[in-house]
Amino acid sequence: MSEAANRPGRLGVGVIGAGRVGAVLGAALRAAGHGVVGVAAVSEASRERAELLLPEVPILTPQQIVERAELVLLAVPDDQLADLVSGLAATGHWQAGQLVAHTAGRWGVEVLEPARQAGAIGLAIHPSMTFTGLSLDLPRLSGCAFGVTAPAAVLPIAQALVMEMGGEPVVIAEADRPIYHAALAHGANHLTTITGQALQLLGELGLEQPERVLGPLARAALDNALSAGESALTGPVARGDAGTVAEHRQTLAEHALGTGQQDIDRAYRALAALTADRARDRGMLTEAQHAQVLEALSRSRSEGSGSAHAAAGQGAAALGGFPAADASAPRGSAESSDPVVVREPEKLRAAVRREVARRGGQLSIGFVPTMGALHEGHAHLVRRAREENDLVIVSIFVNPLQFGPNEDFERYPSDLEADLELLGGLGVDLVFAPGLEDMYPGGDPLVTVSSGRLGTVLDGASRPGHFDGVVTVVNKLLSLVSGRTEQPLRAYFGQKDAQQLLIVQRMVRDTNLDVEIRPVPIVRAPDGLALSSRNAYLDDDERRAGLVLSRTLGELALGEIDLAGARRRIDEEPIGTGRTVELDYLVVVEPETLSEIPPRPGALALVAARVGTTRLIDNREIEAAPRP
Question: Which residues are catalytic?
Answer without folding.
Answer: 378
